[in-house]
């Protein structure tokens, strides 16, 4: 039998909170592990009563999901935390936001509603905005049209176990171009597949099918993350919790 | 003067390098001040990668002390990895600080902390990236004053050509004195240029300006004499000592990085100095006397530090933490205070002593029980008498067995190899010890699930120690002894499986030895190695022994000396050593006598508990031992778990 530490087991999780937070400015260079460390320390500084796992190395109950890659900014990162004492979600949001470094801003915090399913299952698409300095929108537009017209667009991705080919075209839900002369902006909606198709991969696909090579490293921002609706739009993943929460408090149900 | 931020030009480069977060700053508790609000601008550098440099206590202390002054600001800079360095050169971006990405070139002072000599090539790389001339004599009054500190600065001769000043001893007060001198000189319109500034700095206690001292050599290659080239600088430069550590409770707001670092915990220095008298230990020799922080001082630093950082582990640092006069009470009261908070308390490696197991049990009550580390340092009782770290084999086995019996599954033992007078037999006893420890431990714990890790490093003789005259063991000797040790441990498979062995080959130690006991002539070797692409010498993937050997052969030949001359050669009693004009307070005659005692295996006691044995430090420096017990206890603060929280709500 596995050894167990002496003493009573840690208190159970009594409440789950789901948070949306950002990765802005220079902190876009933080990796998902950097963010995890920052978040765990901020939770301690803010004295949020976390629930812990049992065992010799107790860990706070935190579920990370769908982290944006190192170098990409984000307005929509999600995490779920388990508490050992019930707290007001807004009070947790304010306390945690104040104790995190500027650039990691906690925008929303809602209580996970029973019976609405896991949060990770609701994160099946991302809307990215990619800024391409020194690229003309017309040039980008032509390249995007070529990519959308392609049946497949394979790019090689580096993964833990060597390189793996992934079809960027299959994961691409929509793409549009905006901007002005010398500064093109690409908007793409990408479906969550394995391995994940990231902005780098979309750019690699544009290079492959249309020979587009931005002279300056492009800057990507994850604008939204959530469930893809029938029209290919990304919807708010916290909406089911919010809806269930307002019903629970006796407020009128939406018609 | 407006100083531009390099960030806009740096940012596109960061998208192309590994672990870019280490270059953006913005750590919790980092401080920024407007450039024009202060007279003196310090860039503080730890000459290694960010992950190693950020947790450095010395740098963090000086960072806060300087930033608390209204007339000064301090920002930090670390060694940049080759991938970014190449891009910075390509795009003309200079070495920068993290707080505001200001060019290091524009600061008044560049303070570099050398915990180890293996950072020297990284200093040259940073100077070059910053656009500061490598040689002190080529700099003008617009360049920063390059100041070296840290333990390696007790023999700065190998980097004498590259630094403007070296600071000996504790930095807390001397950085203020240097700031005063620089501020007054700038305010007066920089009279006499850089030379006058350096002359003024040379008169600050603890500050050594190498360019004002000339060296002559004898026909046999040894040093003839050090001579002052100006009358207004001291003939001998003495170290600085901070008394009453409670008055210097730094760092108050330890820096918390986003990036991963080598120490994912905060540290509180519980005392400085050590009088155990381990003969190999430079730190223990040059930081005398012992000065304890009081139990209440420590308690309040732990409290403010945890609140300011959110760390869940606190290291109680010092050279021999279990020797604090109130350690038992401290351990108990801190463990009581943090009960139920998942806060771990830890000691660095300790002496082999059953009491230390009790301490560790107490400290780990609330946190993770990772493993216990003891440092017997020498394999045999005989060699432990030579190094003055006496513990009998029976005591060692009994202590480690006690640890296993108390539920610790993992014990680490630190040893050195290549000690003076050492033979293969001394090192082979490590294998006997380890197997005996496992056999007894399995019996005591009733479990086969225990491990002992033997960590062994090659000994490097250091300046200002009784072993400063010793012959360093050659890389071949070290490698041979490590090989026979490994064979001996692996001979019994049933026990050997429970014993891990960690070691480094002997080559890096030889280069560390060259840099530790080198003189000014070694500077040419360092420069040559850097020009040939050498840097990050503390990292095995970057260190090139062959490059160092080739550079040493070429650059030292004109002087009639070589690598062996600096490393494996035993020095005579009357040889002038490159650091003789730098005063650690230790009496050279006492050091020599202690060296002779080492050879004849005679021990010396700890002067905390036994009468003074006249090492010379206290009378020379006007200092004294400061220890408790104070009789005070930790005020029972509000238990942390019951502190203010985000409002709970009833549902």
From TrEMBL, chain A:
One Pfam family matching this protein: DUF2344
Span of domain DUF2344: 16-199
Region (Disordered), start-end ranges: 216-255
InterPro entries, sorted: DUF2344
Protein name: Radical SAM-linked protein
Source organism of the structure: Klenkia brasiliensis
UniProtKB/TrEMBL annotation, chain B:
Record-linked SMART domains: Elp3
Originating species: Klenkia brasiliensis
Superkingdom per UniProt: Bacteria
NCBIfam families xrefs: rSAM_fuse_unch (TIGR03960)
GO molecular function: catalytic activity; iron-sulfur cluster binding
Protein name: Radical SAM family uncharacterized protein
Radical SAM core domain residues: 260-502
